[in-house]
Known about the structure:
Pathway: Quinol/quinone metabolism; menaquinone biosynthesis
CATH topology of the largest domain: Tetracycline Repressor, domain 2
Keywords: Membrane, Menaquinone biosynthesis, Transferase, Transmembrane, Transmembrane helix
Number of domains: 2
Low-confidence stretches: none
Radius of gyration: 20 Å
Membrane topology: Multi-pass membrane protein
Distance between the termini: 49 Å
Order of helices and strands: HHHHHHHHEEHHHHHH
GO molecular function: prenyltransferase activity
Mean pLDDT: 89
CATH superfamily of the largest domain: UbiA prenyltransferase
CATH class of the largest domain: Mainly Alpha
Largest sheet: 2 strands, antiparallel
Protein name: 1,4-dihydroxy-2-naphthoate octaprenyltransferase
Amino acid sequence: xxxxxxxxxxxxxxxxxxxxxxxxxxxxxxxxxxxxxxxxxxxxxxxxxxxxxxxxxxxxxxxxxxxxxxxxxxxxxxxxxxxxxxxxxxxxxxxxxxxxxxxxxxxxxxxxxxxxxxxxxxxxxxxxxxxxxxxxxxxxxxxxxxxxxxxxxxxxxxxxxxxxxxxxxxxxxxxxxxxxxxxxxxxxxxxxxxxxxxxxxxxxxxxxxxxxxxxxxxxxxxxxxxxxxxxxxxxxxxxxxxxxxxxxxxxxxxxxxxxxxxxxxxxxxxxxxxxxxxxxxxxxxxxxxxxxxxxxxxxxxxxxxxxxxxxxx
Length: 313
């Protein structure tokens, strides 16, 4: 397998969805807690990217195996186009998961046992997203799973590996007893800060499923769009973006974010224009990428404003 084929197999260009939660989580840790652990951050970044690539590879492989539409399987799916065998694809996937798991165990040893439980849950969701008899992506849970796992999960872990033990939560095991402790205020803050990420990442999956509505039905994929109907799904697409702006504004109101973060509203007209364009036409080739552009616009500006806040602080 050549490097270009591998990069298409893992869809490397889509990894922005995991990069933004990582960067924002790290910056927020610096701003809110004044804490950073460089080695833990690097280890987590590598593990995160490798596992994200593995889940995408699983998705492409399972789409190939379960495809009912033969034209899609042989001409659009990377396994069919590049002639990659399912066995070879499985070997690559298992290798990536094993490597990411090893890094996760090292991070657990360097932080707290709770990270093992959180990591295992994220791994389970990522693998079962498209693997198994009832994959999450073929049910009306795909948007929720992708949004929470990447938007909240990555943001949370990026903070967790950088702050002192007990700042967020901790798990102590003294066999046969265990103790789970945490700071409710800090956990709620992390949940609120990650909300815009949860919404924008979920919208990428939602936009994808809206655009693939007819193809998904032909391939027996019954996503959220199938159950709530395309018109409501399109409205939900816009509501999630409005929710992101609302969450950031509430953060400023409660003094979690600095007032500078309200400049995020400067891009509202652009986001709104992109929403209207998607409402007018839902097409994979021309308007699906508006969800990715909105994610880059919103969280790119969010990163800039956080950096400014750090400098001014």
